Amino acid sequence: MSDDGADAADASSPTDRAYAEWLDALADGDGFAVVCPEGHGSLPPRRVCPECGSPELSREPLDETGTVETYSVVHVPSPRFAADAPYATAVVDFGPTRLTGIVRDGGADDEAPAVEIGDTVAVDVGERATDGERLVVFRPADGEPPTEGE
Amino acid sequence: MTDVRVAGVGLTPFGSHPERSGRDLFGEAALRAFEDAAVDRADVEELNYGNFMGALAEHQGHQAPLMAEAAGVSCPATRYESACASAGVAVREAVRTVAAGDADVVLAGGMERMTNLPTDEVTEGLAIAADDLYEVRAGVTFPGAYALMANAYFDAYGGSREDLAHVASKNHENALPNEYAQYRKEVSVAEAMDAPPVAEPLHLYDACPITDGASALVLVSEEYAAEHDLDASVAVTGTGQGTDRMALGDREHLARTPAADDAADAAYADAGVEAADVDVAEVHDCFTIAEVLALESLGLFEPGEGISAAREGITTADGDLPVNLSGGLKAKGHPVGATGGSQIAELTRLLRGDHPNSEHVPDAEVGVAHNAGGTVASAVVHVLEVAE
């Protein structure tokens, strides 16, 4: 692993490269899902759509904000998250796909805010407190929820 | 197609055996199964062995030939791995092999060693049953994943931590007379409620323990049982398996387990029974919420109604539909790669009438076993019936 936060070119395997490239895009505000003609969204690396097997996959942008579908405050972490606990993990719907990550408030200590199902959040890339490894982070987002009434 | 009979079952005591090797544990379970079956081990045609994390826990891959040696059998031996459903899939392939007429006698089961590792390494080891890229790297632990499902369930259907505490208390109560159980102590609803949090809303007593142990079953064809005049009154009449997307976030519904729905539908169809015929169940309660989800996937309760089953006394030992009379994974223990075989061993004993909790189900004819891997990306369901 690189020490400056996993540059895509430094990642050690094709899977890691695809993941690192996806995180790079997310960090640049260009988070995407791979979507088939049927509209099934998934995350890379994919050769075919996991739902229908279509090889015709295109990159589609994630919604700018997402809705928390479920969450948990984790008190007993794995060793890789030892210094992060307690932290709030959440599954968030971003349109073409859901993302799983950690909710942080973005303040000085970047603490876990109170989370509720239905909260609106934005997605970013942060670092694990334990070892600096990059990870998906959600931030509370003010303003309008994403497209209503679909 | 032939009927598949359970000729014998063998278990080690479940618990903390950090000083015992995996081969010793599985050897003991197999020895007990052969004693119970009165089957000549020379007649065994295949060994199907389940194990999840032996490469991490014992630095031992390729365990099947080793376990054939430990069991004293000389036959093709294969290790099966589907996380916590490893023994379930091993048993399922044994059932299919015998049912198809490809073998008359198969030894199936599994083994897991866990307590020789520090708790944080077990947590890490179990986490590898989740999607590494999009779950584990995002901080999802095994309890954390079930906690996500629990909160999604509460949001969709209602229910509370106290409902889950009733599941824990029930299963601890059931484990009291079970000589194989890891925790033979009562846990009150209040104690469960007051325990420290692991991943909210799940607290310590919502989680199964870390366990060492092994299970073994001798499965035979109906013809073999008749020829050898075996006492094999319980048959495996149905088997089914389902698979779902690996990551919880990719599932259609965060508070249901469709892989288990599929496994149950297939197993019931295979056996020619319906959910309403089930008299007793052993389900995969690695966490209390998992028992709730299992009951709903098995069709024993409608979605949203399983949560109150323990609190209302329906699934307690004296209820209409006793669930996890063994104590379940929750109190009996969960040696991951052995659990699917252990559930069928316990159900067999319950249906034969020689389980310490058989008195609660004296007229039971149909039992169902539900074994799950990961956050139910894998599920195996078996139907057992009293055949004679």
Quick synopsis:
Chain A is mainly β and 150 residues long. Helix content of chain A is 9%, strand content 32%.
| Chain oligomer state | heterodimer
| Elements of chain A, N to C (H/E) | HEEEEEEEE
Estimate nothing, just give the exact number of structural domains of chain B.
1
Distance between the termini of chain B: 19 Å
Numbering strands along the chain, what is their spatial order in the largest sheet of chain A? 4-5-6-8-7
Largest beta-sheet characterization of chain B: 9 strands, mixed
The overall pLDDT average of chain A reads: 87
Q: Strand-residue fraction of chain A? A: 25-35%
- Overall tally of domains of chain A: 2
H/I helix tally of chain B: 13
The global form of chain A is globular
Order of strands side by side in the largest beta sheet of chain B? 3-2-4-7-1-8-11-10-9
* Uncertain parts of chain A: 1-9, 144-150
The structural class of chain B is alpha/beta
Report the CATH topology name of chain B: Peroxisomal Thiolase, Chain A, domain 1
* End-to-end gap of chain A: 42 Å
Give me the number of helical elements of chain A: 1
CATH architecture of chain B: 3-Layer(aba) Sandwich
Report helical residue fraction of chain B: 25-40%
Organism (chain A): Halorubrum distributum JCM 9100
InterPro entries (chain A): ChsH2_C (IPR002878), NA-bd_OB-fold (IPR012340), Thioester_dehydratase-like (IPR052513)
Protein name (chain A): ChsH2 C-terminal OB-fold domain-containing protein
Domain ChsH2 C-terminal OB-fold (chain A): 61-124
Keywords:
heterodimer; A: mainly beta; OB fold (Dihydrolipoamide Acetyltransferase, E2P); 2 domains; five-stranded mixed beta barrel; 1 helix; 9% helix; B: 388 residues; alpha/beta; Peroxisomal Thiolase, Chain A, domain 1; 36% helix; globular; ChsH2 C-terminal OB-fold domain-containing protein (chain A); NA-bd_OB-fold (chain A); Thioester_dehydratase-like (chain A); ChsH2_C (chain A); Thiolase (chain B)
